[in-house]
């Protein structure tokens, strides 16, 4: 967006009109439904996911439709899990042109820092119907323990 020198007088109305036009263009560029085109900024993070905590294990479910499970790479360290992969979409053909293109293709990477360390030797990853599920059990030192109080 360009800087506009603000002047008083008869030019104020045209400056306000120009500013309104610039704001409309800016908002359209950030809203895919407003016709921003292929270069539209999308605030989504891919893959979208949910993280659950049952007190013993973190459960991560990530949506990866159209991604071959063989190309998904999951890496877990003490408190971080990283999901990498690539979604390949079939081309429309040499003589075809897009009217709308909302599905992205290409490589993706998503890293999450977990609130507690996990035991990366017991992580289980499955992918069913386009949903990647990761079971990340807490590390032994992160698990809750009941401490017995002895009378003295």
Architecture blueprint of SSEs:
Layout lengths: L11 H18 L19 E5 L3 E7 L9 E4 L3 E8 L18 E8 L10 E5 L2 E7 L15
Antiparallel strand pairs: 1-2, 2-7, 3-4, 4-5, 6-7
Q: How does this model look, in words?
A:
The protein contains 1 helix and 7 strands; from the N terminus they run αβββββββ. The chain has 152 residues and is of the alpha+beta class. The protein has 2 domains: 1-39; 49-91 and 101-142, Immunoglobulin-like (Sandwich), CATH 2.60.40. The strands form 2 sheets. It has a 4-stranded antiparallel β-sheet, with no helix packed on it. A 3-stranded antiparallel β-sheet has the order 3-4-5, with no helix packed on it. The radius of gyration is 25 Å and the shape is flat.
What features would you highlight for this structure?
Immunoglobulin-like; alpha+beta; 1 helix; 7 strands; 152 residues; four-stranded antiparallel sheet
Largest β sheet strand count, sense and barrel closure: 4 strands, antiparallel
In total, the number of strands is 7
Class per helix and strand makeup? alpha+beta
Q: Spell out the helices and strands N to C.
A: HEEEEEEE
Strand content is 25-35%
CATH class of the largest domain, please? Mainly Beta
Can you tell me the CATH topology of the largest domain?
A: Immunoglobulin-like
- Residue share in helix: 10-25%
The low-confidence parts are 33-43
Q: Strand sequence of the main sheet, in spatial order? A: 1-2-7-6
Number of helices: 1
């Amino acid at each position: 967006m360009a800087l506009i020198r603000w002047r008083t007088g008869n030019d104020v109305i045209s400056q306000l009109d120009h500013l309104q036009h610039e704001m409309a263009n800016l908002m359209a560029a950030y809203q895919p439904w407003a016709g921003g085109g292929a270069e539209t900024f999308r605030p989504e993070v891919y893959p979208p996911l949910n993280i659950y905590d049952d007190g013993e294990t973190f459960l991560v479910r990530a949506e990866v439709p159209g991604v071959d499970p063989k190309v998904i790479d999951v890496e877990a360290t003490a408190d971080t899990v990283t999901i990498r992969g690539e979604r390949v979409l079939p081309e429309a053909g040499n003589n075809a042109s897009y009217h709308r293109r909302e599905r992205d293709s290409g490589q993706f990477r998503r890293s999450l820092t977990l609130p507690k360390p996990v035991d990366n030797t017991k992580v289980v990853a499955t992918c069913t119907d386009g949903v990647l599920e990761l079971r990340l059990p807490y590390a032994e030192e992160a698990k809750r323990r009941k401490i017995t109080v002895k009378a003295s």
